[in-house]
Amino acid sequence: MPNPAPPPPPRPVQVAASRARGPGMAEERRGSWFGFGFCGFGQAPGSGRGRQVLSPEPLQTPGSGADVRRVSASWSYTALVTRGGQVRLSGAARGAAGGCRDAWASEAQLVVLRAGPGRGAGPELQAWAPASAMRGEPLWARALGPEAEAEGAARGEPPAGALPLLPLLPGARAYVSPRPPFCRALAPELRARRLELGAEHALLLDEAGQVFSWGQGRHGQLGHGSLEAEPEPRLLEALQGLPVAEVAAGGWHSVCVSETGDIYIWGWNESGQLALPSRSLAEDTKTILREASGLNEDGFEVRRTAKGEDGAPAPFIAIQPFPALLDLPLGADVVKASCGSRHTAVVTGKYGQLGHKDTTSLDRPCRVEYFVDKQLQVRAVSCGPWNTYVYAVEKEGS
């Protein structure tokens, strides 16, 4: 399939780039969103029902073009948040609504942060059935109150939220859950900076750069060295003393990025999402059980063998229960990471390029050459369960 022409034709979704880091660097550049992966429900990139988009394509929004600043993707639909305060849906769920500051898409519900009704009212959290197109009444709603918005403004936070975490609440001590109770409180001692939800687990990054995890651990996604569940947030001791800047939760795996640009990854490796030798590339069905450090009889690390080039068994890793340091090609430093159900995408700082696991279940980092060929610098990445959305700007001097 030939690569699409670079923007502006066809007209992709354009937004203003984030302000450059460093003193005196306030220039903003326009950028575009791109998408690739599964779009069988007609969701953005929306290249046709039942198609796999194998190469990045300019992202198209329902209706006319708009400045999109955030993309949140669920299995069957995608929510696009515009700078003008609209949420636009594409895929199995369609529709649009105004007055929205942020959105978080899941199959069970679409959660939006909206301006409250009436003058002087604070923001309101609303959850909608995705098929409702945000018409009628929400499934539930919670007024956050004007004092919460004032708290966020006093800390210099942007007006938008960061769902599922609720930074507008004092101290960011609550988050949205897809299951009852829908708004869950965090322990008072947890000063949350970011929170990510996987299929069965949660990762929290606190203000000190420490990582906490909780939920189901049967795929090693909690990183504590066992396959046991943790009902409450537990400090990830393997990363203690390492200041962390980013966390990302996949379906059953986890990623964090240190302040120095190192990437650590752990959990389920069924499709090579950990960039470790994976089961999907094995050629036979022989099973080896090898006990891993810290695992009990029910928590053996399962490895299968395929014949290597020399004919010897080539083990693979099904579960990595501890954070493992990942070496990217060319020693690139990572600045951002995102996870889908069974794939991982990272943005490196040196070239603003993208590493990913493609649909062939590669178990090694693979650069998306499209952005290199088009002289585009990747600034952000957001993974849905089975697709990936990328925000990129033209490289300076290109």
From TrEMBL:
Chain coiled-coil ranges: none
Pfam families: RCC1
Recorded superkingdom: Eukaryota
Alphabetized InterPro entries for the sequence: RCC1/BLIP-II, RCC1_domain-containing, Reg_chr_condens
Region entry Disordered, spans: 1-28, 47-67
RCC repeat positions: 209-260, 261-350
Compositionally biased intervals (Pro residues): 1-12
One GO CC term, this protein: plasma membrane
Name the UniProt record assigns to this protein: RCC1 domain containing 1
Biological source species: Canis lupus familiaris (Dog)
Gene name, Swiss-Prot/TrEMBL: RCCD1
